[in-house]
Amino acid sequence: MSALETIQKSAQSIVTICEKDRLTKADKDSLLKLQGEIFTQIDSLTGCEACGGISDLIVSITINTATADLCRECGIQALNVGEIRKSGQRRRSSRKSQSLKRSTKATVQESKSTVPSPVDLRARIETETGLNKATIRRVEKIIEEIATPMNVENTIQYVASEAKIAKIKVEDGQLEQVVKLFMGSDSDG
Fold first, then answer.
1. Helix %, strand %, coil % for the chain, to 5?
2. Do 159 and 179 contact (CB within 8 A), yes or no?
3. How far is CA 11 from the centre of its chain?
4. Judging by beta carbons within 10 Å of its beta carbon (0-12, 13-18, 19+), is residue 151 exposed, middle or buried?
5. What is the pTM of this model?
6. Domain coordinates of the chain in residue numbers?
7. What pLDDT digit, counting tens, does each position of 129-180 carry?
8. Residue of 52, 45, 49, 53 whose CA lies nearest to 63
């Protein structure tokens, strides 16, 4: 059963429970369980980089050094055409948008060069802190799971406590440096 079918089935079960005249504690527990199932299935859904559609079956395809996560239909189309067309590659016919593209091209290239890729960032953190890749990824996952944005100091405190709970062997100085590098506020330069 696909994720979308599971979501639909859970939603129908919720509606069935809510249609009762009187709900019990068991009904509330069932509703919470169904809500959890729905959230789990929603988390498994991902977006197609070509059409923007959401699906539970996304395939990563590489054609001529271009890689994209595509849904079934866009993947088949990309294989037939022999190239990957992401949604940002659509051509615009108006001259105004073309002149706008030319004027912003230099600023876009500058901003791309200042943002390191995740792989480069992890490699930099590995060389600067001496931590192994697995530890760096575990700390990165803790940072990504933070529900709301925090300032650097609070994030360091939170990650330190979560690292202790997860029994990640990392010194406080290394942890602080990793968090600052991931958050992009490296004060050392």
1. 65, 5, 30
2. yes
3. 25
4. exposed
5. 0.39
6. 3-44, 118-183
7. 888 888 888 888 888 888 777 788 888 888 888 888 888 888 888 888 888 8
8. 49
